[in-house]
From TrEMBL:
Residues that hold NADP(+) according to the record: 155, 169, 171, 197, 201, 297-303
Protein name: Riboflavin biosynthesis protein RibD
Organism phylogeny: Bacteria, Pseudomonadati, Pseudomonadota, Alphaproteobacteria, Rhodobacterales
Keyword tags: Hydrolase, Metal-binding, Multifunctional enzyme, NADP, Oxidoreductase, Riboflavin biosynthesis, Zinc
CDD domains: Riboflavin_deaminase-reductase
């Protein structure tokens, strides 16, 4: 492994730790190296500011002069709430910048590299570009398509059921799997469920057991907002954001009641009697979300899969069988032939306590 690859891998690890913590900004890592030694490290701060580069430069101090900065995305070149990172890099005397790929934000794309070269900074690109593109996929999707990346999580019995025929579902998987799920929540900007799940489970949808983190937005998709006001979501909406995506036919009294609890209401187009999945993700993207963790229910999962809007699958399979009368994890999709079914590429399989975790990505 070359030095460039090793240091970029380090920067990517730093950036990944900030996933879910800095939307709408990308989770960027930066490592500053001089004479083979790391003199500064940084990652995008919680809430998106400061950026990774000024944090790493601050740690490096005078040692930044003549050093190489490894940044996991093209440094920004536009004036926003803070000055451009390229100006900070030049001012600090950085001699070389290594970045895997360009930012796709038109305010930045190519301009950051151009500014650096114009000011005498050597620029190297393409190092671990595939890994960086995967890490920044949600940010890129929001810029290019106006929607966040969607990870669909399912916790099933061996025969693909999420509950018994009577609705009992807690707990099919064990505590180790549930801890991993909380970590996955923390790495996403929002956790999303359908109204049926919100009613049946009365979930909190917060991150627990992972220290002080920026809690994900709790998104409930419900055309008529048929979610009880006497629920954990309603009672905590002022502490952790709750967004309700609903149709225009939701009762005005219900809307006002949820708004009085502190929830944000997002009206959305309805198609076939349900919230249109394309419009749903466009509404979430417009609010700044880049990564959404969908935890069901079955109808919401089916609509996202049928519309080809699921980018990653995370499954937890328990060694228990519930039979045909058990409730399936995904609702009807109208698939008649195997060729019509969405297919994903296996990324990882590992034991998680007594269960098996498997991760898949869009093919």
């Amino acid at each position: 492994m070359s030095d460039d690859t090793r240091h970029m891998a380090h920067a990517l690890r730093l950036g990944r730790r900030r996933m879910g913590q800095c939307w709408p900004n990308p989770a960027v890592g930066c490592v500053i190296v001089k004479d083979g030694h790391v003199v500064g490290r940084g990652a995008t701060a919680q809430g998106g500011r400061p950026h990774a580069e000024p944090l790493a430069l601050s740690q490096a101090g005078d040692a930044a002069r003549g050093a190489t900065a490894y940044v996991t995305l093209e440094p920004c070149a536009h004036h926003g709430k803070t000055p451009p990172c390229v100006e900070a890099l030049v001012r600090a005397g950085i001699a070389r910048v290594v970045a895997p790929l360009a930012d796709n934000d038109p305010r930045v794309s190519g301009k950051g590299f151009e500014h650096l070269r114009r000011h005498g900074v050597e620029v190297t690109t393409g190092v671990l570009a595939e890994e960086a593109a995967r890490d920044h996929a949600g940010f890129f999707l929001r810029v290019d398509q106006g929607r966040p990346l969607v990870t669909l999580k399912l916790a099933n019995s061996f025969d693909g059921r999420i509950a018994t025929a009577t609705g009992e579902s807690q707990w099919i998987t064990g505590p180790e799997a549930r801890r991993v799920v909380h970590g996955l929540r923390a790495s996403h900007d929002a956790v999303m469920v359908g109204a049926g799940t919100a009613r049946a489970d009365d979930p909190a949808l917060t991150v627990r057991g992972w220290g002080e983190v920026r809690q994900p937005v709790r998104v409930v998709v419900s055309r008529l907002i048929d979610v009880p006001l006497m629920s954990k979501l309603a009672s905590t909406a002022r502490d952790v954001p709750v967004w309700l995506v609903h149709g225009s036919d939701a009762a005005s009294q219900t809307r006002r009641a949820w708004e009085s609890c502190g929830a944000l209401l997002l009206p959305c187009e309805v198609s076939g009697g349900r919230i249109d999945p394309q419009a749903l993700l466009a509404a979430l993207g417009a609010q700044g979300l880049t990564r959404v963790f969908c935890e069901g229910g079955g109808q919401l999962a089916a609509s996202l899969l049928a519309a080809d809007l699921v980018d990653e699958l995370v499954g937890f399979t328990a060694g228990i069988a519930l039979g045909a009368e058990g409730r399936p994890g995904i609702g009807a999709m109208g698939v008649d032939r195997l060729a019509e079914a969405p297919r994903f590429v296996l990324e990882e399989v590992r034991a998680t306590g007594a269960d098996v975790m498997h991760r898949w990505r869009r093919g």
